[in-house]
Amino acid sequence: MAWRGDGLLREIDTLDEDTAEQVFWVNKWHDGEPHCPKCGSGVWGRVTRHRCFRCKQCGREYTSKSQTLFASSTLTFRQCLKAICLADESDLTMKRVREVVGVSNSGASLLLPRIQLLRATGSIADEDLPQDAAAATTVVSSAAVSHDRVVIR
After folding, report:
1. How far is CA 23 from CA 45, 81, 103, in A?
2. Distance (Å, rounded) from C-alpha 151 to C-alpha 144?
3. Contact between residue 124 and residue 28 where contact means Cβ atoms under 8 Å apart
4. Rg value, the chain, Cα
5. How many helices (H) and strands (E) does the chain have?
6. Nearest-10 crossing angle of helices 77-86, 17-28
7. Which of 2, 11, 62, 145 is deepest in the core (most CB within 10 A)?
8. At 145, phi and psi to the nearest 5?
9. Is the model's pLDDT at 35 over the cut of 70?
């Protein structure tokens, strides 16, 4: 799936949340199947009540967003996919993030650095991100802020 264009954004709008989660899986786990972040096992069970997985090897519960840029966010999987699409845009503004992803001003300001990291690393997985705080700060600090408009270059 190419992550460009408004056509793809419209296609994401047609996905139900379960399908959007499966598309998210393919971006996180390239074989398309969940793996435990603790032991790496691919043997899991689904805990539907909490919308998470339980590793059958070590018993750890984890979600599809665990160990990704979106781990601490309350975004839906459709919103996460839209944010991934925005990483390809050259001049990304807070207004564009608000309109496309459907978040508030504060949500957009929190999402912009994550999109910048995604653009810099090319991956949503935590293990592909810079491990030291200085490297992460360098990537995020390239965002230029002026009044109500944040532009990522």
Report:
1. 19, 8, 21
2. 6
3. yes
4. 16
5. 6, 5
6. 50
7. 62
8. -110, 130
9. yes
Read off the tokens for 150: 């944040």
Which residue blocks in the chain are alpha helix, DSSP H?
6-14, 17-28, 77-86, 94-101, 105-121, 133-140
Beta bridge partners of 67: none
Residue type, 29: W
C-alpha angle 150-147-106 in degrees, rounded to nearest 5:
60
Predicted model pTM: 0.72
Length of the chain: 153
Quick check: 123 and 64 in contact, CB under 8 A?
Answer: no
Q: What is the pLDDT of residues 64-81, one digit of tens each?
A: 888 888 888 889 999 999
CB 3 within 8 A of CB 88: yes
For residue 35, the one-letter residue type is H
pLDDT, tens only, 97-147: 999 999 999 999 999 888 888 888 877 776 554 444 334 433 333 333 333
